[in-house]
Amino acid sequence: MLLGIVLHGAMSFIPGIGIIWGVQDSQSNGFYAILLASIHGWRMPLFFLVSGFFTAMLWKKRGLHALLVHRFKRIFLPMLLAMLTIIPVMLIVSGYVRSQPASESAATVTDGNTDSEEPGEQRGLAEIDVSAAVVMGDLDSLSTYLQNGGDVDAKDAHGSTPMHVACLFGRADAAEILLDAGASLEVTNNEGATSEHLLALDWETTAYIAELVQVPVDRDEVLAGRQQIADAIKEETGRTAQVMTARDARSNGLEGLIGLLFFVPVFHHLWFLWFLCWFVCGFALLVKLMQTLQISAVSDKWLTSWLRYVWLIPLAAVPQYFMASSQYAYGPDTSVGLLPLPAVFAYYAIFFGYGAMYFGANDQSVTVGKGYWWTLAAAVLVLFPIGLGLNGPDRPGNRIVFAVMQASYAWVMSFGMMGLFNRLFRSQQFWVRYLSDSSYWLYLAHIPLVMLLQFFVRDWSLPSLLKFGFVCSATTFLLLVSYQLCVRNTWLGALLNGRRYPGRKESTQTRESTLQVSAPAIEESI
């Protein structure tokens, strides 16, 4: 959960991220995209593994009915409350920071590539996020960018040119300026689509993308704008582009409804809580089914010995094959709609299911984590680079290797981290318990504060690493203060962690080991 602050704190420093994230920092570096991928590849898989473990623990200790009641109180209710409070605040903050232009003295540069002798015109050019200018209809900035020699076909992190963006959102005025500047209609993005292809993109997917990047759109305006762009293309080139019309949008009622249920963002960063609700209900049904059919448990050797890799890696590689299809994507996709995307749901269900079965193995010596030092090294130095190098759409053979490498990375990192934490935190440590208790609140509340701090430092000319460290540390500190003062010993703390904490410090002699002391709090929140 705490690594969520690191991931989202790094977002603004990724080159070209402005189109999908509220803040684009003036100092960007590709290192942050690699950092994000390296953590994203194993963080949530391990989370769901641990969640499955504690779900099985609660079932064994309290019974199925108590488990469902517990998860309703600790998972569903906090999710609902956060959707009514934190999500609206996040959207307001995102809209505000996105609407604020960069200061005239700020330049968007890549660390290590700044030329102190660069002409003033080029430094001014770097200040302009051309894709954002198209999205927001900032024609003055777009014209300035082009007049100063800006690349009319410059690609963002998703391989999209300004013309792609104009066609997607129906920005006809911007498209005409780009066409006059010689924008190519043959350039494809990471998904292999030309800008003309996006003129026919269905409304549901368009609305999903617009919501994701916090761009207000009106269906009739977007469709009318696309038609104007198609007319301009025909006048410019003589060819006719297919356009999604209002009539087409209405005729696809059922498809549109399905698209809305899967793709319109409802849960945002709370999606994992929604997944847990599904998984717990599925777990309860499977328990009843296994009890009825008297199905025996899986043998421990398939759960704790090296044989676990024989079936876990291929099993997780199957849904991974259908995810991370764009050139720069790595690891599992994110599903934020009301209905989970099948591949994403299946992928995390595998980790949750293994965690539930692993509890039954009673592996108190943490056999799965032995040799953690070399497993972590192999994952970071071998599996991750190979998987990252093979990502993106390609031939089926490469995609298979790509999926296997990523699934291997997720499992090896998960088991390695279990071994590492068993080695470092097996004996009781109060600060570990405190961070464990607070992490639920910190994750729920962090994004609005992260965005505000990223906006605060956006135009500073300091190295990105210093700004990134400031954003992460300040966010953590301020949220820990809010947890101590406003959450820990209140009804909210009881809702999140299942208990109120006394004001006095517990006696060290009365505490058990960290594993024993932390388990109740962890199982309350996970």
In this structure, how is the largest beta sheet organized? 2 strands, parallel
Spatial extent as radius of gyration: 25 Å
Strands side by side in the biggest sheet: 1-2
Distance between the termini: 10 Å
- Low-confidence runs: 112-126, 504-522
What fraction of residues sit in β-strands? Answer: under 5%
Q: What share of the residues lie within helices?
A: 55-70%
Query: Using DSSP, what is the number of strands?
Result: 2
Task: Classify the secondary structure makeup into a structural class.
Answer: mainly alpha
Q: What is the number of helices?
A: 23
Query: Secondary-structure element order, as H and E?
Result: HEHHHEHHHHHHHHHHHHHHHHHHH
Principal-axis shape: globular
Mean pLDDT, rounded to whole units?
Answer: 84
Give an overview of the whole structure.
The chain is mostly helical and 526 residues long. 64% of the residues lie in helices and 1% in strands. The chain is built from 23 helices and 2 strands. A two-stranded parallel sheet has the order 1-2. Helix 3 crosses helix 14, helix 8 packs across helix 11 (219-237) and helix 20 crosses helix 23. The longest helix has 36 residues, at 64-99.
